[in-house]
Amino acid sequence: MAKPLCTLSLMVEPDFTAAALPLLEAGEVDAIEWSFDIGWSRDALPPGIEPLLKFFSDHRRLIGHGVTFSPLSGQWHPRQADWLDRLRDEVALRRYNHITEHFGFMTAGDFHQSAPLPVPRDKRTITLGQQRLKMLAEVAGVPVGLENLAFAFSPRDVAEQGQFLDDLLAPVDGVLLLDLHNLYCQAHNFNTPGTELMASYPLHRVRELHVSGGSWSQSTLEPQSGPIRRDTHDDAVPEEVYELLEHALKVCTSVEYVTMERLGRTFDEHEAERSAEQFRSDYRRMRSIVGGH
Amino acid sequence: MNPEPPISDEELARVQAALLEALHADLPPQEIVARLQSDPALLPYAEWVASFEPRMIETAAVLVKKWARRRTDPATSEDRHAEGL
Question: Could you tell me the pTM of the whole model?
Answer without folding.
Answer: 0.96
